[in-house]
Amino acid sequence: MHIGGFVSSAGGLDKAIVRATENNFDSAMFFIGSPQTFKMPTLTDEDVSSYQQKLKGSNISSTYAHALYLANLATPDNKLFYSSVSALTKTMQNGEAIKLNGVIFHLGSHKGTSSKEGLDRVIKGIKKILDTSPGNTKLLLENAVGQGDKVGVTFKELGYVLDAFTNEPRVGVCIDTCHAFAMGYDFSNQSLFEKMLEEINSHIGFDRLDCFHLNDSQGELNSHIDRHANILEGHIGKEGFERILSEPHFASKPFILEVPGVDGNGPAAKDRQTVLDLL
């Protein structure tokens, strides 16, 4: 079982590894640059070397970057689309420089067109990003909560995008448990959980499912509210998390905590222990 956390990279990417290690995380996720700007940094040789040294001396087995929040590949606005492509490309290039497992991003909103049109633009954007960011770092689609014009809100929609990349192993999926629950996927009911597994296998495939964002939900089932809660402090429930964590198809996937934290400072060792106590 690999349990990770979304940690701060303030002061340098090497500091993210230090913080993850201090909290006994097996996996680390962090930002490369500000999530609120399209201008992505260029990593220096010193940045890369310091990061690699800290990682080498740790027990962290997988690393991810969360892409900028402003990215929207589903948009019909050309300026926003190409700004998003450029920023995600740079993030992928930086990710390859430090040998990340993946860059996780939100697909965005179709802005009053249609979900299909939005998803087709996402496919177009991914092709452009991969063409200019060679390597092994994966680009991972994160499921969203169905608010407004967002796309990628069901496993079927994520599968529609994946179908355009059947021969591209660098495109995969990260499932956020809060987002899925808020969209109506009920983890606490065995028959509904099995139905969800069938949907994941049919549209995504367990081999294309790379990792999880492990979050409880402040909103109730099918509430369409995107508000993370600490594990066991929201509406998913103990039984729901036990079912997720014990599912054999998920056993090798990193579970990355994106919670407020029991101390209010983000995921930490106490939050990791809460997960371990459910095993």
Task: Please sum up the structure shown.
Zn(2+) 1 binds at residues 66, 106, 142. This protein is of the alpha/beta class.
Write a structural description.
37% of the residues lie in helices and 15% in strands. It has a single domain, classed as Divalent-metal-dependent TIM barrel enzymes (TIM Barrel). It has 279 residues and is α/β, with parallel strands linked by helices. The strands form two sheets. An eight-stranded parallel β-barrel has the order 1-2-3-4-5-6-7-10. Strands 8-9 form a two-stranded antiparallel sheet.
Which tags fit this structure?
TIM Barrel, two-stranded antiparallel ribbon, single chain, globular, alpha/beta, 279 residues
Mean pLDDT: 97
Question: What's the CATH topology label?
Answer: TIM Barrel
What is the fourth-level CATH superfamily?
Answer: Divalent-metal-dependent TIM barrel enzymes
What's the architecture in CATH terms?
Answer: Alpha-Beta Barrel
CATH C-level name: Alpha Beta
DSSP strand count: 10
Backbone shape: globular
Structural class: alpha/beta
Distance between the termini: 9 Å
Strand and helix map with partners:
Blueprint: E1 3-6, H1 13-22, E2 27-30, H2 45-56, E3 62-66, H3 78-97, E4 102-106, H4 115-131, E5 138-142, H5 155-162, E6 171-176, H6 177-182, H7 190-203, E7 209-214, E8 216-217, E9 228-229, H8 238-246, E10 255-257, H9 269-276
Parallel strand pairs: 1-2, 1-10, 2-3, 3-4, 4-5, 5-6, 6-7, 7-10
Antiparallel strand pairs: 8-9
Helix pairs in contact: 1-2, 3-4, 5-7
